[in-house]
Write a structure and sequence with these properties.
0% of the residues lie in helices and 50% in strands. With 121 residues, it is an all-beta fold. The radius of gyration is 13 Å and the shape is globular.
Length: 121
Amino acid sequence: MAVTVSTQQNPIATIMVEDTAAVATAVNNTTGNSGTLFMVEIVNSAGAIVYFKLADATSATGGTTAADLVLRCPASSTRSYAFPNGIAFANGFSHWCVAGAAESNTSAPGSVTVRYITSAS
């Protein structure tokens, strides 16, 4: 797993998180604070559908923690999701990616890169 967090400059002082190997194990509190989610991009190189899950939490456990946002990406596809008004996350950003939609799913997703842009609170 290789997770990179980059602070961007104005106009909205955004943070971009990039996980080049998103897996079923949650990456916790990636931005280190609360904020607003504006965009998610999922690059699915795997041969099956994947589900990116994001929790408004400083700590999460894939397969146990209820995700606040679940985004689907078809096999061998790239999907971008934009939230023009943003989605507020009061606690933090914790994410994971699995091969099934069920909350209890812990199946490894294959080769997936995820990027998301937030603004810091």
